[in-house]
Amino acid sequence: MNSLLLNTDGVQIPQLGFGVWQIPSGEAEQAVRTALEAGYRHIDTAAAYGNEEGVGRAVRGCGLPREKVFVTTKLWNADHGRAEEAFDESLARLGLDYVDLFLIHWPVPKQDKYVQAWGALEKIYRDGRARAIGTSNFTVKTLTRLIDETDITPSINQIELHPYLQQREMRAFHEANGILTEAWSPLGQGKGLLNDPALAVLSEKHGRTPAQIVLRWHLQLGSVVIPKSATPSRIAENIKVFDFILDTEDIAAIGALNRSRRIGPDPDTFDMT
Fold it and tell me: What is the set of active-site residues?
């Protein structure tokens, strides 16, 4: 498993993680146990997913030392004005003494409390309750405001990123500011991407599934990537991406698939609380 260095006191994040979005709480414990047994060491959850309890049970009961499992959770939109309290609630649901990464889930610009929330995250980080802090679904505009108006630059920004939405401007901004890129919905949520003929060609060339080709592309971009599955065979399949390399022609072929089309909400307008 490759790890990447965050801009926070030498903290390293496993580059391939396991996402639990849309996995019910009752199923999350077994899914995370399966992932950890397969070799994953990075679990990504959120208060909004409603499954922190199951994730925490799996992490606490897996037999691995706590420091060997990187745990991320996120602050929900309704809690920007009470971020410390919401963080403590997440920590209690997880049953952990700390998390490795705590993110603001969405900026919700219309609400205009994300700078206030970030101040609370900075305190949580300084208190040692989160080893690193970052953002999710922030844009160049909202990240720039955080950097300009607060003390700590986010260590990572988690964004929708897949071959149909390659986010080149965001990735360049992240790199210029020492922020890692993390990809959610890296496989396009099963909405046609994995059936693309270009991926079929690369799949045949490398003897890999289209999903493995796409995950390898993310890794070679230098992004952190968090595929989600509750199916044991796919959980195992998705981690088997460290023993082959896409060449420059392969990368160019995937680069040509960009449609700049979102599957998820637009961060500039998403205001669900």
Answer: 49
